[in-house]
Design a protein that fits this description.
Layout: E1 14-19, H1 33-50, E2 62-72, E3 81-89, E4 95-104, E5 110-122, E6 127-128, H2 133-146
Antiparallel strand pairs: 1-3, 2-5, 3-4, 4-5, 5-6
Length: about 150
C-alpha cells in the first residue's frame, strides 16, 4: 500500500505551542493517533480565535471538519512542546484546507503534517454555505503580514 505523501506549504500564517501531556501518550510511550487529532483540533480552535472567531461563528457561519489527513514524520513524547503551524489553502466554493505542521520546539524535529478540510455551514438551514468574504479578507491580511 502506498504511503500518504503530503508536501508542506511554503509558509504558514499562524502558529501556536501545545505541550504533550501524559494523557496524549499511548502504551508505546509516544503521541497517540487519536491525541494527535486532539492537539491539531486545539490548534485549529486557536487559529480561528486569533482571527476573532469561534468555530460556531465564523463571520456568521458555523464550520465543520469534512476530512483530515495526517502524515507522521517522527514520534512525539510526554513533556515535549509542539509548535503547530497552520495556513488556509486550496479554497473552493464552500471551504478550504487548513494545512498544518507539528514540530518539537526543543529539537526542531517534525512530528506530523497534514490538512483539515473545513466546510462552512449556514446554521439556520444546516446546508453548506459559501466561504465568507470577511473571513477571506482576514486571512489575506495575515498573509500580507507574513510576507
Amino acid at each position: 500500500m502506498p504511503r500518504i505523501q503530503f508536501p508542506l506549504p511554503e509558509r504558514f500564517v499562524f502558529a501556536t505551542d501545545i505541550q504533550i501531556y501524559i494523557s496524549h501518550v499511548n502504551q508505546g510511550g509516544h503521541l497517540d493517533n487519536a491525541q494527535l487529532l486532539t492537539l491539531v483540533s486545539e490548534a485549529r480552535v486557536r487559529f480561528f480565535k486569533s482571527l476573532g472567531y469561534t468555530e460556531g461563528d465564523v463571520a456568521g457561519f458555523a464550520i465543520v471538519v469534512g476530512d483530515m489527513v495526517a502524515q507522521y514524520k517522527s514520534e512525539g513524547f510526554h513533556g515535549e512542546t509542539m509548535r503547530v503551524s497552520m495556513v488556509p489553502q486550496d479554497y473552493n466554493k464552500y471551504g478550504f484546507d487548513l494545512a498544518y505542521r507539528m514540530e518539537c520546539l526543543d529539537t526542531a524535529r517534525e512530528v506530523a503534517r497534514g490538512k483539515i478540510g473545513i466546510v462552512f455551514i449556514d446554521r439556520a438551514t444546516r446546508k453548506v454555505a459559501a466561504v465568507p468574504a470577511t473571513f477571506q479578507a482576514k486571512v489575506q491580511a495575515l498573509s500580507m503580514d507574513q510576507a
